[in-house]
Design a protein that fits this description.
Putative odorant or sperm cell receptor. By secondary structure, the chain is mainly alpha-helical. About 75% of the residues lie in helices and about 5% in strands. The protein has helices at about 1-10, 35-65, 70-85, 90-100, 105-140, 145, 150-175, 195-200, 205-240, 245-275, 280-305, 305-325, and strands at about 25, 105, 185. A three-stranded mixed β-sheet has the order 2-1-3.
Length: about 325
């Protein structure tokens, strides 16, 4: 649907000073030529770690029957979204560095913005759903399997995708109504919605209202849901008499709490740092934290702090080692 809007919008543009140039210039993180190979190597490494780390989580969850539970179903979905999230921006950035071209067409920019918003909001929704899952598991353990049934889990993920897609489509369609000036330099390494609005020559009041309203409702609502779930979880844990029982209950949500803290702290940190410094370059560097670093660290957090994942990984590697030895004829080697 977005592509139909784009095609219709571009073909009906009138030639004029504000619509001739349909290309944006992504300034990236640094203008220094000698730093480009370093930036390329660093981001390529982080991207590969992100993709392979999250793919390993998906493979582990899908191949181990012990992990076929709602918690790990949501985790595998989060890993898939994290791969898509980084793939929206990093490959294009690497291509621009390799070809020494910073140009991004109007169509590509709007498309990138659409998918960036889609997966960013979807990340928030999945983290909220995972918080609700932990709330049910700890506060209502006897009814957990009844409440968190297969149908509800699938419905929660489906609704998350639908709401994210509708919001992303709304923001993109709102962007299509704007006319842009001739100076189309974006001080980021991707097409960020707020930066695009600042480049527009036409009235952006309605765009800003829609953008901030969606951020308040979706972002604020998700954060409120997470905080409410954990307030109930903390109250429930406090009522447990034994220290071992408290530790066991808290350990089941420690990984998720770490990921939530990392995601929201980096996101809010970028927002407040850009608001305080009014420097587009510094906020672009800070945006690396939640667009690249957070998705990269998620697999490490879940694999290092989660005993179930660690045991499943050990079983996978053990089976893999046995198969390799069997192929080499060394299975019974002393």
């Amino acid at each position: 649907m977005l592509f139909l809007f784009l095609d219709s919008h571009i073909h009906h543009m009138e030639p004029g000073n504000d619509t001739k140039i349909l290309e944006f210039l992504l300034l990236g993180l640094s203008k220094e030529p000698e730093l480009q190979p370093l930036i390329f190597g660093l981001f390529l490494s982080m991207y590969l770690i992100t993709v392979f780390g999250n793919l390993l989580i998906i493979l582990t969850v899908s191949s181990d029957s012990h992990l076929h539970t709602p918690m790990y179903f949501f985790l595998s979905n989060l890993s898939f979204v994290d791969i898509c999230f980084t793939s929206t921006t990093i490959p294009k950035m690497l291509q621009n560095i390799r070809t020494q071209s910073k140009v991004l067409t109007y169509e590509d920019c709007i498309t990138q913005m659409y998918f960036f918003i889609l997966f960013a909001v979807l990340d928030m929704f999945l983290l909220t759903v995972m918080a609700y899952d932990r709330f049910v598991a700890i506060c209502h353990p006897l009814h957990y399997t009844v409440i968190m049934n297969t149908q509800l889990c699938g419905l929660l993920v489906l609704v998350s995708w639908m709401m994210s897609a509708l919001n992303s489509l709304l923001q993109s369609v709102m962007m299509l109504r704007l006319s842009f000036c001739t100076d189309l330099k974006i001080p980021y390494f991707f097409c960020e919605i707020n930066q695009l609005i600042q480049l527009a020559c036409s009235d952006v009041f309605l765009n800003e209202i829609v953008m901030y309203f969606a951020a308040a409702i979706l972002g604020g609502g998700s954060l409120t849901g997470i905080l409410h779930s954990y307030s109930k979880i903390v109250s429930s844990i406090q009522r447990i008499s034994s220290a071992q029982g408290k530790y066991k209950a808290f350990s089941t949500c420690a990984s998720h709490l770490s990921v939530v803290s990392l995601f929201y702290c980096t996101s809010l940190g970028v927002y407040f740092s850009s608001a305080a410094t009014h420097s587009s370059h510094s906020s672009a560097i800070a945006s690396v934290m939640y667009t690249v670093v957070t998705p990269m660290l998620n697999p490490f957090i879940y694999s290092l702090r989660n005993k179930d994942i660690k045991r499943a990984l050990e079983r996978i590697f053990r089976k893999g080692g046995v198969k390799v030895l069997s192929v080499l004829g060394l299975k019974n080697y002393p």
